[in-house]
Queue: 2 jobs
Job 1
Amino acid sequence: MNVWRNLHQFAPAPNQSTSAGRPVPMRHSRPIEVDGVFLGAAVEHELGVRFIAVDARVIDMDQSIWPTVDYAYRSARQLFKSGRAAQPF
């Protein structure tokens, strides 16, 4: 059994949050919720927004890319309302 000690040595120092001397920008995201149920998040992406699913009813959409947050929201809402869930493997 491996016991890992001193893992803090691999963590970046607080002032090392840069890439080649430039600050790394934080990605913006918006929660996607329907009828009070948190389905996932729409995260800013070079091509629009990427949907990150957290509810099993919309897992088929996980990692999909949409042109806008509104498209991602409407698609997640439609899938959620349809009641189709991903089939287990």
Job 2
Amino acid sequence: MAANRKSLDEIKRDLDMYVGRRVKLRANRGRRKFIEAEGILEQTYPKVFVVRLNKRGGVTNRMSYSYADVLTSTVEVTVDDKQIGAANM
């Protein structure tokens, strides 16, 4: 468990460096359904991070994911061709 905690902290630190930058998300929604989106990494919190997605028509949505989602590869985050996640640690 301690090893996972350290990995979660590393993922948060990595994402902290990219707050305010454009990111690409690929999230597994189950049953072979994936969502792919682009947005701005708006904020990181102790357990989750928030991405602001710009939709057509001026509507802005926000999505939040946990660092565990990145650790388990449920969510892939790419910042300027650099993938953040367990594979890079």
